[in-house]
Design goal:
globular, 7-stranded parallel sheet, alpha/beta, DNA_Partitioning_ATPase, binds adenosine-5'-diphosphate, P-loop_NTPase, 7 strands, binds magnesium ion, CobQ/CobB/MinD/ParA_Nub-bd_dom
Amino acid sequence: MAVFISICTQKGGTGKTTLTMHMATYYHVVEKRNVIVLDADFPQHSFFNERALEIAKLRQDPELIATLQQQGRAPYEVRKVAMTDAPTLLDQLADTPDTIVFLDMPGTINIAGYDQVVRRLDYIILPMEADKLTFAAGMMTLDAFSKINRPAGKPLKSYLLWNKYKSSERQTIYESIETMAGQRPDLTILDTRVKDSVVWKNNRSTLFPYGEIKKLIAEINQKLAFNS
Ligand SMILES: Nc1ncnc2c1ncn2[C@@H]1O[C@H](COP(=O)(O)OP(=O)(O)O)[C@@H](O)[C@H]1O
Ligand SMILES: [Mg+2]
């Protein structure tokens, strides 16, 4: 069976693509899981384009090719898909053994196909920043998702993930958002916080894993329980 995960929320720039990339690459290379990424984020398709750029760079750099070969894993598949085609594609992928499918989606949910995709998702991770607007967008996303009919016995499991975490930020913002989020029975707050740092930007890659994501992956393995 394949599991379908999306790091998504209605707000742009919260780290959906960045976190998807770090997770997908780490799962594939380090955890040796079968990974497929569906980039449905029209029109940017930044995940797909970043993979293409990395492959182009690789071709110019024998050292990089050697490093990739040492990893012993051919790059995972990144497919550019239209949101309207994604539901059918997910149905086709559903029986793929032991595969984690990540969906990178647009920041707006009012597009054709979106609800049909959400219906098929197993897990969503809402990236959260320390501001009330991002929280409101996340909760609106959850509310919209909860109105979508789901197959019996397949609840959508939702997680909140702090991204761009700043220890210099007033801690009461984190606390108050966690208190509000904690009142929702349909949402679990992840303990691991991804810090606000250019290293997350600079080390994101569809080919080479960034080890700093390890702690988050360990928590996800434990809490999302999609291990075969
Ligand atoms: N933890 C982080 N620390 C610093 N910058 C980050 C972090 N996560 C994401 N970013 C940056 O924030 C910007 C938006 O991230 P992106 O992943 O494109 O968001 P989205 O896909 O939600 O629109 C990018 O420039 C990205 O490099
Ligand atoms: Mg994006």
